[in-house]
Amino acid sequence: MTQNIQEQNIKLMRLMKQAIDDNLLVPGFHPLLQTHFPSRKTYLLSCNLKTATGQIIPYKSLRKLATMADMGAALDRWMVKTGLQTLKRMHLEQPEANIIIPQSASSLHNREYPRWLDRQSSREDVSIRGLIISFRLSQIAKNLKLSSECISGLHQLEINTMIDSFTTHPAALKILKAMGSRYMSAAPALLKENDDTIKRIINTCHRHSILILLPGINRAEDVNLCWSFGADLLEGNYIHPPAEDTDFSFSPVIV
Predict the structure, then answer these.
(1) Which of 59, 49, 55 is nearest to 103 (CA)?
(2) How many Cβ atoms from other residues are within 10 Å of residue 56's Cβ?
């Protein structure tokens, strides 16, 4: 049984490498609603992979495969290149448009990453206005020194950052304030936290001019209503219900 699992993992890792090398990944763009600027286009970038058998491997699974195959940095580079090309097209329609690009610890803990991203934006001839680079809170916590260097380097280039999967961990708010990120994305468990916890997080974020994203809202009852006075961006099927003809790939725009 263990051998079968290992063989399957090896096949999946080879598939991941081929997907990146041969550009087989399919980008996905999840529309976000800005509560204060509802007409402003903002997208969260993801991707998936369709196998030869028709199976769809979603973004979260691809991230795990990339880590197993030591290809986290390669997937990061693909995401950045795709995101920058998309942002360039979005700016033609709306200069204030935003795109959020998730990145892994491979980039977060790489001192050269900010300079690489700066060179990449110059190569693509795209303004970094509206570019938001997202890192998970757990990745930041693993190496605060390297994380701070990377995030500070991005801020010096006027590239905004987001702390993703934000939790109620005692150190979470301290990390959020120390990193100086412009955005925070709540972890699923945080959406239904108690009133006092939510109010404390909202007040702290807004006191430090941090915008709050609530992701994965598929039903109204999934979210504590206390968020209604503090959430700045919303994502999920409840916010943008997909229709039969909805195409979440770019360039169709959903507002």
Answers:
(1) 59
(2) 10
What is the per-residue pLDDT across 191-204, written as a single tens digit (0 to 9) for each? 999 999 999 999 99
Compute the Cα dihedral for 177, 178, 180, 186 and give only its sign. negative
Residue-level pLDDT at 250: 41
**Strand, helix or coil at 184?**
strand
Is the confidence at residue 247, as pLDDT, over 90? no
Cα 160 vs. chain centroid, distance in angstroms?
12
DSSP-assigned beta bridge partners for residue 49: 57
Give Cβ neighbours of residue 237 (< 8 Å, ≥ 6 apart): 217, 218
Cβ atoms of 143 and 115 closer than 8 Å: no
Q: How confident is the model at residue 252 (pLDDT cuts 50, 70, 90)?
A: very low
Query: Are the C-beta atoms of residues 89 and 128 closer than 8 Å to each other?
Result: no
Rounded CA-CA distance 150/154 in Å is 6
Domain ranges for the chain: 2-235
Each as own residue / partner, the long-range contacts of residues 192-195 (CB below 8 Å, 24 or more positions apart, any chain) are 192/222, 192/223, 192/224, 193/168, 193/224, 194/224, 195/224, 195/226
Contacts of residue 142, defined as CB under 8 A and 6 or more positions apart, other chains included, come to 105, 109
What is the C-alpha radius of gyration for the chain, rounded to an integer number of angstroms? 18
**CATH architecture label of 2-235:** Alpha-Beta Barrel (3.20)
Contact 230, 202 (CB under 8 A): yes
Q: Is 210 helix (H, G, I), strand (E, B) or coil?
A: coil
Coil, strand or helix at 49? strand
What integer is the mean pLDDT of 107-123?
A: 97
What is the separation of C-alpha 5 from the centre of its chain, rounded to a whole number of angstroms?
30
What single-letter amino acid sits at 92? L
